[in-house]
């Protein structure tokens, strides 16, 4: 359904001409995000220069009942920024200023289009940094990080975006501007900032963010260790945790992922080893030293076949380059791949990897694993060839892996979000009533449902009336009600 | 006439709600009964103390689920056997405050500097709404972005949105060794020293000034590293190690005399009102100097302070905090007498608060008056 001409004219009139794009060649650039398999061409793309412009654009959409989708850098991996067919995209790309750096209070106020890494770049000379570090940090925006509650390799110790935001200025779906959160951890009443974080653009558009900054740690120690099996590497992670150590990061890669990464960036990983762990500790020197000694000892105890300790910042960077390249590098060993993002309780890592391997074998597809082992967040990469007609099989396997994580007591997504990609899987994790109450939250912020419709929560239009597998209601579990 | 119900299960709680009409007060251990807006007239008091007990503790995953009426100190005792704890040290924990009550009041202690408040530690909740709907959000894993994080809405809701039934929390290892350095000084000097500490890389877990004239700096550490780390704190800011009181093992939650005094000070001065205020840390010393405060504990890294002020000064104090861009809420009002304003001016998103309230509690049954005078209803 094309956009009603009156609505189109009203929205066009809300902004200066150079902030409105409706030339089909140019709007095509916005037709997908990082999940490139889904594409929808938006009717118009609005690129306001400031918060007031965003508010005018949203208000015009609201008056005319036109749905809008906020967009940062478009690196999202769950189709969150996928346009809606009869709607507009509102890009925050031009809201890209660092508004204030407050060294004394260790915080910065930034516009949503500032990239994650630009925040740290702007404050590094004061010995400060912004802790959440998604692998996409060179390009993804803080507005996108807020919307997805993004994490990174270091969130085991430091937490996610939600733990590093004091407040957001938000244009609500009716065009009004409010502040969610305040100047400290103390909130006035229910934590609206907290529910907005991770709402994937469905509750409004962020126009500025006050982020918390941390002092850079005194020292950082990084090691890369090879193990004879994924299970042995998993035991190391468990023992580190049992020793009362909270590492800054613990990442694991399996043979296939290592092979791909080495081929791409030659970071010094051992090709052929069944599993490798990257363990990083940071903090005051004495603390780090005593913990690092324990970690080395634990690695040895579990039959570590090679232990490489980064001896310089360059060596540390190389280890991380290998880890961070793994995603893209898989492109070298397979024409196409899907990335999953499920989470399992850490103690079930070995089990889930075993099951994934079996499922892959059954489907006749290879699965490479790179993951945040410390918090059980998997990133299985399902390798396939579209040219050989494997797409559907791969997609099915990929979805089954996410649902397996839920079965094992985990989650569909650790950091990439639900978007449109996994909305239809939500009923495997949440019951109807859970989802209905989430819908109430959505309606409280967005009574007319124009802010990124069709994302996060399943809709019959998107998912069909598929009853499918469902999650039991708490009262069913208690034996109070039953479903016959 | 107020009917008291004390359900022992989600099903009983739901039946009690659906079988009753009119306004409902949700009560945990009662340690914060006087906090925030005074409760209006209610017909039913719903006690959570029957909803008690640890459900599942997975030591390897460092997560625990409990029923919301469980006193946090009981939970701490249970998980501490495995060398783990909830990294949370609000003074009320020692008084028997429940997990649900601590979450609903948005409470936090000195270690919020590093660990945040319960909103940063909660990973899942099950909540009963007044119309009988039950909503689960989050789950049992620390990393999870599926669905809206309803737990956060319950944080600071003061019993106005729903009844927390179950809470899942992230655990941390109990630090192997904990030490505190105490420095005798006034507030301006404490603020200067805190500035140096926070600009250093010594990573204190808590930095609090007490109106008894002391700055407390807590270090959580490994055994081996603690002496050196404490020495470095002393070298930077002076002071002396604060003695651990006799009956407490290292690793217990309130680790030294200074922290016991801190907990006592958060209860205020008899006859005065207690206010909890939050403001940018750099503005806190100046703000406190302008207020007619009695007892004070001031988080110089967090910007969060608990102070006592004369009852007649509460309104002016709210106004002064608001003028500094901060937040304030009444924590203890004198037992009877004049109405004391619980909150300052409403936040800019008050319309969203009203809309959420309307969606969650359409008949306005839960917690009447708690957000007065904001007309959240
Ligand atoms: C190679 C690669 C590696 C990645 N690694 C990680 C990782 O380690 N950890 C991780 O968490 N993620 C990772 N991601 C996913 C992605 O980078 C993050 O989700 C990121 O936060 C998205 O930011 P963006 O600016 O690209 O947002 P977009 O993709 O543009 O948008 C994402 C969602 O946010 C909404 N949105 C964007 N801006 C706003 C705004 N201002 N207000 C309201 N809503 C808004 C959109 O509507 C959409 O729903 C990775 C992606 C890639 C391609």
Automatic annotation (TrEMBL), chain A:
A Pfam match: FAD_binding_4
Domain FAD-binding PCMH-type span(s) in chain numbering: 38-216
Obligatory cofactor(s): FAD
Keywords, comma-separated and alphabetical: FAD, Flavoprotein, Oxidoreductase
A GO MF label: oxidoreductase activity
InterPro entries found in the cross-reference section: FAD-bd_oxidored_4_C, FAD-bd_PCMH, FAD-bd_PCMH-like_sf, FAD-bd_PCMH_sub2, FAD-linked_Oxase-like_C, FAD-linked_OxidoTrans_Type4, Oxid_FAD_bind_N, Vanillyl_alc_oxidase_C-sub2
UniProt key word Transmembrane: no
PANTHER family cross-referenced by the UniProt entry: GLYCOLATE OXIDASE SUBUNIT GLCD
Domain of life: Bacteria
SUPFAM superfamilies attached to this UniProt entry: FAD-binding/transporter-associated domain-like (SSF56176), FAD-linked oxidases, C-terminal domain (SSF55103)
Protein name: Glycolate oxidase
From TrEMBL, chain B:
Residues covered by the FAD-binding PCMH-type domain: 1-174
Highest rank taxon of the organism: Bacteria
Stretches for region Disordered: 239-258
Keywords attached to this entry: FAD, Flavoprotein
Residue ranges of the TM segments: none
GO MF assignments: catalytic activity; FAD binding
Gene3D superfamilies for the chain: 3.30.465.10
PANTHER family in the cross-refs: D-LACTATE DEHYDROGENASE (PTHR11748), GLYCOLATE OXIDASE SUBUNIT GLCE (PTHR11748:SF103)
Name this polypeptide is given: Glycolate oxidase FAD binding subunit
Organism of provenance: Pseudonocardia oroxyli
């Amino acid at each position: 359904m094309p956009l009603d001409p009156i609505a189109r004219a009203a929205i066009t009139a809300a902004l200066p001409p150079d902030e409105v794009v409706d030339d089909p060649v140019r709007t095509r650039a916005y037709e997908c995000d990082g999940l490139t398999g889904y594409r929808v061409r938006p009717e118009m793309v609005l690129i306001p220069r400031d918060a007031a412009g965003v508010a005018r654009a949203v208000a015009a959409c609201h008056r005319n009942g036109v749905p809008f989708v906020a967009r940062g850098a478009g690196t999202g991996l769950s189709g969150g920024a996928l346009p809606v067919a009869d709607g507009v995209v509102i890009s925050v790309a031009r809201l890209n200023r660092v508004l204030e750096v407050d060294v004394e209070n260790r915080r910065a106020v930034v516009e949503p289009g500032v990239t994650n890494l630009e925040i740290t770049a702007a404050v590094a000379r004061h010995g400060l940094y912004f802790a959440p570090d998604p692998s996409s940090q060179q390009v993804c925006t803080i507005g996108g990080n807020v919307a997805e509650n993004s994490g990174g390799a270091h969130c085991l110790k430091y937490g996610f975006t939600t733990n590093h935001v004091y407040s957001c200025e938000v244009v609500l779906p009716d065009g009004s501007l409010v502040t969610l959160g305040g100047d400290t951890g103390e909130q006035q009443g229910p934590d609206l900032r907290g529910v907005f974080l991770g709402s994937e653009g469905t509750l409004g558009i962020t126009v500025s963010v006050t982020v918390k900054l941390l002092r850079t740690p005194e020292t950082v120690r990084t090691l890369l260790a090879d193990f004879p099996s994924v299970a042995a590497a998993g035991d190391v992670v468990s023992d580190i945790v049992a020793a009362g150590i909270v590492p800054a990061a613990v990442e694991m890669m399996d043979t296939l992922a290592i092979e791909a990464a080495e081929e791409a960036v030659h970071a010094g990983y051992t090709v052929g080893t069944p599993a490798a762990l990257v363990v990083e500790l940071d903090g005051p020197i004495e603390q780090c030293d005593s913990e690092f000694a324990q970690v080395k000892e634990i690695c040895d105890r579990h039959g570590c076949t090679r232990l490489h300790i980064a001896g310089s910042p360059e060596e540390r960077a190389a280890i991380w380059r290998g880890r961070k390249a793994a995603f893209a590098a898989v492109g070298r060993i397979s024409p196409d791949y899907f990335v999953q993002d499920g989470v399992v309780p850490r103690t079930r890592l070995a089990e889930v990897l075993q099951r994934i391997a079996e499922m892959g074998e059954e489907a006749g597809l290879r699965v490479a694993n790179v993951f945040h082992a410390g918090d059980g967040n998997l990133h299985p990469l399902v390798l396939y060839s579209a040219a050989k007609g494997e797409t559907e099989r791969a997609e099915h396997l990929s979805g089954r892996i996410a649902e397996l994580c839920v079965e094992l007591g985990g989650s569909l997504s650790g950091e990439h979000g639900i978007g449109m990609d996994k909305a239809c899987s939500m009923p495997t994790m949440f019951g109807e009533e859970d989802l209905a109450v989430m819908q109430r939250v959505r309606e409280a912020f967005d009574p007319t449902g124009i802010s990124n419709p069709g994302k996060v929560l399943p809709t019959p239009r998107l998912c069909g009336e598929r009853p499918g597998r469902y999650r039991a209601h708490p009262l069913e579990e208690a034996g109070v009600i039953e479903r016959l | 006439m107020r009917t008291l119900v004390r359900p022992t299960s989600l099903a009983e709680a739901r039946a009690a709600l659906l079988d009753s009409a009119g306004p409902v007060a949700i009560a945990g251990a009662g340690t914060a009964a006087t906090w925030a807006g005074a409760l209006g007239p209610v017909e039913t008091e719903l006690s959570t103390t029957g909803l008690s007990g640890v459900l599942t503790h997975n030591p390897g995953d460092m997560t625990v689920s409990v029923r919301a009426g469980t006193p946090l100190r009981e939970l701490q005792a249970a998980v501490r056997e495995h060398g783990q704890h909830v990294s949370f040290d609000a003074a009320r924990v020692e008084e028997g405050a429940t997990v649900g009550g601590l979450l609903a009041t948005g409470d936090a202690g000195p270690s919020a500097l590093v660990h945040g408040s319960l909103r940063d530690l909660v990973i899942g909740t099950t909540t009963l709404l007044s119309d009988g709907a039950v909503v689960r959000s989050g789950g049992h894993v620390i990393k999870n972005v599926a669905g809206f994080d309803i737990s956060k809405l319950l944080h600071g809701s003061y019993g106005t949105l729903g009844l927390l039934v179950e809470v899942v929390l992230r655990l941390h290892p109990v630090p192997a060794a904990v030490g505190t350095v105490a420095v005798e000084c006034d507030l301006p000097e404490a603020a200067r020293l805190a500035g140096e500490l926070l600009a250093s890389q010594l990573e204190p877990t808590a930095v609090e000034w007490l109106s008894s004239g002391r700055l407390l700096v807590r270090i959580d550490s490994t055994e081996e590293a603690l002496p050196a780390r404490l020495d470095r704190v002393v070298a930077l800011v002076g002071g002396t190690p604060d003695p651990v009181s006799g009956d407490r093992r290292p690793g217990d939650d309130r680790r030294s005399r200074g922290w016991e005094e801190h907990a006592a000070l958060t209860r205020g001065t008899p006859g005065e009102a207690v206010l909890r205020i939050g403001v940018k840390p750099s503005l806190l010393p100046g703000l406190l100097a302008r207020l007619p405060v009695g007892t004070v504990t001031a988080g110089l890294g967090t910007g969060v302070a608990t102070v006592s002020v004369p009852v007649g000064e509460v309104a002016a104090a709210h106004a002064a905090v608001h003028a500094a861009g901060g937040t304030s809420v009444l924590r203890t009002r004198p037992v009877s007498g004049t109405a004391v304003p619980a909150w300052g001016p409403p936040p800019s998103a008050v319309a969203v608060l009203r809309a959420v309230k309307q969606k969650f509690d359409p008949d306005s049954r839960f917690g009447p008056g708690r957000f007065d005078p904001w007309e959240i209803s």
